[in-house]
Design brief:
heterodimer, A: four-stranded antiparallel β-sheet, 10 helices, 10 strands, B: mainly alpha, MetI-like fold, flat, binds adenosine-5'-triphosphate, binds magnesium ion
């Protein structure tokens, strides 16, 4: 538990004893996790350990079989308008960017604010331009996604999330689909966000990012949270055999 | 000349109806409600697999027994729009299946409702990627309107008129030939316009 919890603050994201199956496969096993306001939590673990699934349950892109998920202390709505409203408050950045292919960059960023938040078009455009500037792609505003590099597309995707003024942003391997030379520019934007106090849950294999930026590292294996701690503690002195094996395996390539 | 106009008019109105109906049916087929999906699929299975002439004959000659009597024009219009609507929906479904699932997830993740997603993401992308098949469908719709020759439509459509000339005057073959040229010319123009539109709206991936 982080220091904030001791002060009795309500976590932005809280999972209580969450279980999920895909058919016979038990993908999430009794997951308990809370993320405080302004905290950056990095999730690492081998492929298939359930990291993406965990992320996706938080805005109910995946349903759960048992347990509870609370956002700002309020349980996730089941379906319909309330669920849509909640999703608008939790940003999500995907491995494959997922920009809307038929819209230009600016429209990608303004769609949520105008259509979901019902903000005036002009205001939304002005803010979108500022956000695009902040992530360094304002000169591409009138191009379509396919004309941008992967790194630029991912930065637009981050701007699209930010435009919704989310309470937290979930990142699922945001740099895994990128060429090595573009990883840095995306991590840089994420680092700035973290420093500005954004609440973030990040699944990543970028260990240097985890060391520098994370407040807490969570190690998942086989559907369970096996270990959790500060980056120093986790990387310098992992407590479990499984975490040691995992860290060795990624060091070796 | 009048006949060519009738053909164009039938085609335009039939295609407009087919298009709107096709979009509606398609929205039903992707909706989260099972009865709607079932109805949409059912519609397509029926009208994609029924010959136009057959449908027209039912409308003109069988429906009166049910005390449903429509004008010949209406009957031709219905036959020439219900069937293309099914094909329209098939083309749109192909376009929808080409939308990467990630984009739908992204739309959900910013809090869009099902209706918003359909309006802003699904329909626009499906339309843009089905311009060429829809152009072909417009031509096919025009050719389907030749069915009108099977019923005594006034003023007659192109094929109707030609068939009339054929039975009532000499030079019938020439008349068929001229009408074929007129259909062809119209189709070529439609095709060119379709290509232009496609170039403009095609989605870069
Ligand atoms: N929709 C699904 N249906 C069935 N099984 C699924 C589904 N999605 C994921 N799985 C399975 O659940 C397990 C956990 O998947 P998940 O994507 O959460 O892992 P991950 O930790 O994100 O892995 P990676 O590092 O490869 O992204 C895997 O075994 C995967 O095959
Ligand atoms: Mg994953």
């Amino acid at each position: 538990m982080s220091a904030y919890a001791a002060e009795g603050q309500v976590p932005v994201i809280e999972l209580r004893h969450v279980d999920k199956h895909f058919g016979d496969l038990h993908v999430l096993k009794d997951i308990c996790l809370s993320v405080q306001r302004g905290e950056v939590v990095v999730i690492i673990g081998p492929s298939g350990s359930g990291k993406s699934t965990l992320c996706r349950t938080i805005n109910r892109m995946e349903t759960i079989d048992a347990g509870e998920i609370l956002i700002d202390g309020v349980p996730l709505p089941e379906e319909g308008k309330d669920l849509a409203k909640l999703r608008a408050q939790i940003g999500m950045v995907f491995q494959s960017f997922n920009l809307f292919a038929h819209m230009n960059i600016l429209e990608n960023v303004t769609l949520g604010p105008t259509d979901v938040l019902k903000r005036p078009r002009k205001e939304a455009r002005e803010e979108a331009m500022q956000l695009l500037k902040r992530v360094g792609v304002e000169s591409q505003a009138h191009k379509v996604p396919a004309q941008l590099s992967g790194g630029q597309q991912q930065r637009v995707a981050i701007a699209r999330s930010l435009a919704m003024h989310p309470k937290a942003i979930l990142f699922d391997e945001p740099t895994s689909a990128l060429d090595p030379e573009m990883i840095g520019e995306v991590l840089e934007v994420m680092t700035e966000l973290a420093q500005e106090g954004m609440t973030m849950l990040v699944v990543t294999h970028e260990m240097n990012f985890a060391r520098r930026v994370a407040d807490r590292v969570i190690f998942m294996d086989d559907g369970s949270i096996v270990e959790e701690g500060t980056p120093e503690a986790f990387f310098e002195n992992p407590q479990t055999e499984r975490a040691r094996n995992f860290l060795n395996s990624i060091k070796n390539h | 000349m009048q006949a060519l106009l009738t053909t164009w008019k039938l085609t335009a109105v039939a295609f407009a109806i087919a298009f709107v109906l096709g979009v509606l049916i398609t929205v039903m087929r992707v909706s989260p409600l099972k009865p709607l999906r079932f109805f949409g699929d059912f519609y397509v299975q029926i009208f994609r697999n029924i010959p136009g002439a057959c449908l027209l004959i039912i409308l003109v000659y069988a429906f009166p027994y049910l005390d449903i009597i429509w004008s010949y024009f209406t009957c031709v219009l219905i036959a020439a729009s219900l069937i293309p609507a099914a094909f329209c929906s098939e083309y749109l479904m192909t376009g929808i299946n080409a939308i990467p699932v990630g984009q739908i997830e992204a739309a959900r993740s910013i809090g869009m409702t099902f209706a918003q997603m359909i309006r802003k993401i699904v329909v626009p992308q499906a339309l843009r990627s089905s311009v060429l098949p829809l152009t072909n469908l417009l031509v096919a719709t025009m050719l389907t309107t030749a069915l009108a020759s099977q019923v005594p439509l006034r003023p007659a459509d192109l094929t109707g008129l030609v068939a009339h000339i054929n039975t009532h005057a000499v030079g019938g073959v020439t008349a068929f030939f001229i009408s074929a040229m007129l259909y062809c010319a119209t189709a070529v123009v439609i095709g060119q316009i379709g290509n232009l539109i496609d170039k403009k709206v095609r989605i870069l991936r």
